[in-house]
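Deliverable D4.2, example record:
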Amino acid sequence: MGTAAGMLAEARKSLGLRGRPNYITRDYAARHGGEFLSAPWCDMAVTYWARRSGNAGAVLPGGDRAYTVWHAQDFQKAGRWHTGTAANLSKAKPGDIVFFDWGATNSVGAIDHVGVVEKVLSGGRVQTIEGNTSDAVLRRVRGADTVAGFGRPAYTGGTSSWTEKAVKNLPQLKRGSTGEAVHTLRGLLHARSHQEIGPVEGGFDAKVEAAVKAVQKWGGVPADGIVGPQTWPILLRVHK
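Output generated by the structure prediction step:
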């Protein structure tokens, strides 16, 4: 079942990808022709993430897209288009497909670029994941001045999975904590390549605190070394 959370999870896997051709352009070119191997790939990235996460029907109402204008028009035809005003942008949701015009208009025909909304911020801004931004997949913060509009995919599931709901019942952990929850934490840190903390069976010591801060910094939450509602989702890979 396709969800916004699934779309974002797939996009996060590509963070740091650079240059072209790459696995995203190769995937698109395999279906549509070799000329796409080195073409601008922001919308190819959105297409790739949608297909890989089971969200093609929702995110790509007109089928695969490499041309952003046509993609935005697909959302218009589906009645799922929102113009990029500051008021509208404040109502965006994680998983929305956001389109940009560097000429600062809200004209669909002038769209230059596309990404996926990861977070809605204050002041009419959104945090996005975008392909082909400086020829890489990166997080960006964008405002209404460059947003032409956004499409609201018809995801078939909610943005919260059973895992995300379970996070709410997990304990807060900090330096000095002990017990099975800390062992779980240490195991999750191991899964994120923090083997320097030592065996899974242990307490919440200085090494664990340093590893938690590194994960928090990567996830864009306060690096306070305390594992709570903002940090568990990052460790469990359901972070929005």
